[in-house]
Fold:
Amino acid sequence: MLEVLHSLANQSTPLNHGVIFLFNGAEENVLQASHGFITQHPWAKQVRAFINLEAAGVGGKEVVFQTGPENPWLVQAYVHAAKHPFASVVGQEVFQSGVIPSDTDFRIFRDFGNIPGIDLAFIENGFIYHTKYDTANRILTDSIQRAGDNILAVLKYLAMSEKLADSSEYRHGNMVFFDLLGVIVVAYPARVGTILNYMVATATFLYLAKKASMPGHGGGRYVRDLACATGVALLSWFVTLLSVLIVALLVTLLGRSMFWYNHFYASVCLYGAAATGKMILIHTLAKNLYYGVSEWKLGDLYFDVSLLLWCCSLVWLTQHGLCSAYAPMLMVAFPLATRLLLAKEFKHRALACPLHDV
Structure:
């Protein structure tokens, strides 16, 4: 924050709006400092937006996990200005659901000041956070530089924005936002996402219905095989989850429930191996149900099962108004589009190269 302040103070171009730097403490004692500022300080009434800097770890990429509420222009500001974007609406909805027992100054400014903002935090190496090992020498300079680049760019963008003068005018609806490999951020209104989600779901159900009605698939036989394969997939998920829970219980009984926290690959080897092994076992045993069926047809069937399950998840999340529905939408849209394009290409090649009897 001091470096950002120094940079802003020494730039030649004046800002259109003032910037307040709030250094506070008492966060762990029911967020008293931020509450005191937003309810008692005379400057509080002049604040139109805020950027809240948090940490649940040491280093790594700072993730935008809360925005708004209902101020899509803030997300657009981050999209346009951030040099190293890293954001996801999934984090916002998970955090605001109460599943994670934590709180930030974001809620204080939002609820007591009715001010929209952006909440970002470091989340890597969380096993050090709030322990005796949480020292300054463990803070990675690359992480500080990256965060500084993003915050300075977004802050300049906001301070020069005309929308900041009366942000209430641009308060309409939520945004779906997510980054692509930390390169760019995709953002669009939630209402557009709802339309897009239902379009993808409709296309998927039409694809499956058309496939069931094709003469070569036997109609009812295809539906029966699809239902059976769906049951196998759900069973494999259940057994996999049960196996992971059993492993977690054993680790807890040994008094080492959190040993994996600072060893990422240990968790992959321990829980990932158990999950993968049970998944392979269930599908290997289930393969006997399709004796005589070619592996190509079996793979095609389970591709349809994957589409069906992701599509059901997509519809459920969309009906509940969750912006996180973009995730299953991508898991449905791109595989389905790829399948249709490949089928069209192979069909054209088959027509271009007819078989000749000898």
Summary: Residues 6 and 12 are 12 Å apart (CA to CA). The two ends are 80 Å apart (CA to CA).
